[in-house]
Amino acid sequence: MKNLILLISFIALSNYSMAQGCGLVSVTKDKKTGIETKGGVVNSKDFYSLLIQKAIDKNSSSSSPKYVLSLHAASRDMLPDSMLLSMGKFELLMADGNELILENATCFNDPLGLGASIGFQVEVTENQIREILNQPIKKVKVFEILETEFAPSKQKQQQKLVHCLVNE
Q1: 145: Cβ–Cβ under 8 A, 6 or more apart, which residues?
Q2: Beta bridge partners of 68
Q3: 0.85 surpassed by pTM
Q4: Which of 76, 107, 110, 153 has the greatest number of beta carbons closer than 10 A?
Q5: CA-to-CA distance for 140 and 48, rounded, in angstroms?
Q6: In angstroms, how far is the first alpha carbon of the chain from the final one?
Q7: 38 Cβ partners below 8 Å, 6+ apart?
């Protein structure tokens, strides 16, 4: 009986330590292109959704992963065409007070297909995504029009999510 309890405890501990909290990550695979996309969402204090994604082309061994940050917000107003056709930036204030500027961001009307939403997206390098692993995002400002903050618990969630994406 004692051995059984020890065995169950060992199995539970092994499963917990291997998972590293990666239940936040969802995976989709495009069978036609071979691209596998992994990612997860962290909500801000204003209930904006920050999507952190990694895309990998499984058919090409030479291609490196592509990382993307997307911020989605409910909005009664749509973005004007002049903004949709322009490039902007993500300004990330990290937990340690440093700022990370990500250029060449794009924006979209109704990115989720549910109506009444706007979205912003930027590609990031692996080094930039690792910065989030070291110091999570405290505040994000996009295109100088939308700004939101993340609670400390959501900052930890960002780090768990990025850890899973970088180490898989």
Answers
A1: none
A2: 53, 123
A3: no
A4: 107
A5: 11
A6: 37
A7: 25, 26, 27, 53, 54, 55, 56, 164, 165, 168
Range from 7-16, 32-41, 76-85 carrying the lowest mean pLDDT: 7-16
| Contact in structure between 88 and 66 (CB atoms under 8 Å) | no
Decide: 95 and 151 in contact? Cβ < 8 Å. no
The residue to which tokens 């291609």 are assigned = 63
Q: Are 149 and 139 in contact (CB under 8 A)?
A: yes
User: What CA–CA distances, in Å, run from 134 to 79, 91, 95, 127, 163?
Assistant: 33, 17, 9, 11, 10
Nearest to 73 by CA among 89, 51, 97: 51
Residue whose C-alpha is closest to residue 117's, from 30, 51, 163: 51
- Residue type, position 54, single letter: K
For 97-122, write each residue's pLDDT tens digit: 999 999 999 999 998 787 889 999 99
